[in-house]
Write a structure and sequence with these properties.
Layout (H helix, E strand, L loop, with lengths): L5 E5 L6 H12 L2 E4 H9 L3 H8 L1 H16 L4 E4 L8 H10 E7 L2 H8 L13 H15 L4 E4 L5 H13 L2
Parallel strand pairs: 1-3, 1-4, 2-3, 4-5
Helix pairs in contact: 1-8, 2-4, 3-4, 4-5
The protein binds shikimate-3-phosphate.
Shikimate-3-phosphate binds next to loops.
């Protein structure tokens, strides 16, 4: 039986939540919501500008407000920011109203993708070792999601098919 719960994609920066979410939403005929994009629209600023101008705490407050709003909807594929699931209120709402999928990649894969990335204010000043530590810490929390998709040996289509199978038979 098909669920009308949201699908929420979680995982580190660079795990492909947005690009996979977009294709998945089309395949399942669900609405796609990219939380980072919604934050940028509501603040009329790029995420990196929000971090520079107002700092991380301010960003996290807006992230919580916007994430809770969209997570409480229905029939959506939601791409959460990499730090979203770390927030207890956001995590509770995910548990209540969504099926959560952790896009899990090897640490080296993520480090390669985000090291020194200008688009990612949280990663730009981190060494590879610091990104690795952040990944270790966050993975403990990401593992509280409903499903873990081990992505390294899969291509995009295979990742999407796995999520679809789980969602459609839930
Ligand atoms: C962040 C991840 C980013 C964005 C912000 C903070 C994080 O989203 O929300 O830069 O704390 O991991 P993506 O995971 O979509 O890159």
């Amino acid at each position: 039986m098909k669920s009308n719960k949201n699908i929420v994609l979680i995982g580190m920066m660079g795990s492909g939540k947005s690009s996979i979410g977009k294709i998945l939403s089309r395949k399942l005929n669900l609405t796609f919501v990219d939380i980072d994009q919604k934050i940028e629209e509501s603040e009329d600023s790029k995420i990196s500008e929000i971090f520079t101008k107002y700092g991380e705490d301010y960003f996290r407050k807006i992230e919580e407000k916007i994430s809770l709003k969209f997570l409480s909807s229905e029939n959506s594929v939601i791409s959460l920011g990499g730090g979203g699931f770390i927030n207890t209120s956001i995590r509770k709402m995910c548990k209540k109203n969504c099926l959560s999928f952790w896009l899990d990649w090897k640490n080296e894969t993520i480090i390669k993708r985000i090291y020194k990335s200008k688009k990612r204010p949280l990663a730009i000043n981190l060494t590879k070792g610091q990104i690795n530590n952040l990944l270790k810490e966050r993975s403990k929390v990401y593992s509280l999601s409903n499903y873990r998709i081990i992505c390294d040996k899969l291509d995009k289509v295979e990742i999407i098919n796995k999520i679809t199978e789980i969602y459609e038979y839930k």
